[in-house]
Amino acid sequence: QQQRSENSTMRVTLRCHHGTMTMDRVGESLVFIHGAGFADDHFVFEGPLLAVNNALRGLLYTPDTNWNSEKHAMDAARSGVDSLEKIEIWVVDAHGLEDYAFISIFVKASNDAPVLSMGTLVAHDTINRVADQRSTRKVRVSTLHCRQNALCPLVDLSVKDVDATEHPSGALRLILRAANGSFSVDAHSGSSMAYVFNSLAQTNPTPPAGLGYAAGAVGAGVGQDLGSTVEIIIPAHEVVTAVRGLLYTPRKDFYGTDELFLQVDDMGNHGFGAACSNRGGSADTAAGMPTARMLEASGLPCVLSDAMRVPVVVAPRADVLELVGLPT
Fold first, then answer.
1. Residue 131 near residue 85 (C-beta atoms within 8 A)
2. DSSP string, 102-157
3. 31 with 13: CB under 8 angstroms?
4. Backbone angles phi, psi at 42, to 5 degrees
5. Is the pLDDT of residue 189 over 90?
6. Of 316, 314, 320, 318, residue with least CA distance to 152
């Protein structure tokens, strides 16, 4: 009787509402009727009792991007719904007998790191083509091909942070460096960088060294040369359009190879995130930011960042010959 029970077929339905589930212990005897048991919010499978229990022991849950019980508690109270995640399970045996249970999960808030991308971005939301923290970048950044003495646009440069705008003064710090060139902003690109420059000029006409509009180009604006090292603080709600139209210009008469260094950090703007938890680590001390231990002691969140290096090839242009008349 026990052996028949262990080998009897069980049909299991799993569903969650604010995330995805993955089973990392899927045996060969399990058959999926709906879904595949990987990064899905609803799947149905069947198989022997032992195989089913073994698969459920390896169930992993991942909340949706920037969804947590703390952030949505007020909305849930107003609408009369639960702010907890609920994982539901239905089980039907070979005789048609059914049972139901659920697990309530309180999802704590945490700081989401910014995402810096350039080039092709595979969107997690394939229906709306919306890129979020689960979207994946190319592991290898494509080489940027430029021409000598010509403007070179940073095509498809994108900066995203899903929780930075939740902080009243949410802002991101963008750092650009080039060894053999400089940066500027296309005045006809629709970039909101002009707004950022004007706002910074009004609030802090003389920014401290290393912070502000751009190192070596304090007070520069759209259409002007910002220098080879740019470090600027951008309001979170302006980040998407601010980086639009950024240009790289090789230094005069230079051709060959260069490398661009791009970095973005959230300056600890964490929305509803928890306090710093990177014990023993360190934040961006090179740029004057406090260490993780100092942040933890003060109750502030850790600074999270993302960076990439972009190889550049600057092709030479043919020299122009000038005919100079001989003296008579």
1. no
2. EEEE-----PPPPEEEES-EE-SBTTTTB--TT-EE-SSPPPEEEETTS-EE-TTE
3. no
4. -160, 120
5. no
6. 314
Cβ neighbours of 124 (radius 10 Å): 15
Q: How many angstroms separate the CA atoms of 248 and 187, rounded? A: 14
Tokens of 230: 């740019």
Q: Are 152 and 144 in contact (CB under 8 A)?
A: yes
Higher-confidence position of 112 and 259: 259
Task: Give the burial class of 34: count Cβ atoms within 10 A of its Cβ; 0-12 exposed, 13-18 middle, 19 or more buried.
Answer: exposed
Token pair belonging to 305: 């960042």
Contacts of 96 (CB under 8 A, 6+ apart): none
CA 219 – CA 201 distance, rounded (Å): 7
Q: At 60, which helix (H) or strand (E)?
A: strand 59-63
Residues in the chain: 328
Residue (of 238, 106, 83, 230) closest to 164 by Cα position: 238
User: Are 314 and 148 a contacting pair, CB within 8 Å?
Assistant: yes
DSSP type of residue 289: P
Helix, strand or coil for residue 1?
A: coil
| Higher-confidence position of 69 and 137 | 69
Residue 73 has which token pair?
């508690």
Rounded distance, CA 4 to CA 173, Å?
A: 63
Angle at 198 (CA atoms; ends 194, 203), nearest 5 degrees: 150
Segment 274-317, tens digit of pLDDT: 555 544 333 333 344 444 445 445 555 577 888 889 999 999 98
Q: What is the pLDDT of residue 206?
A: 46
**For residue 239, is pLDDT > 60?**
yes
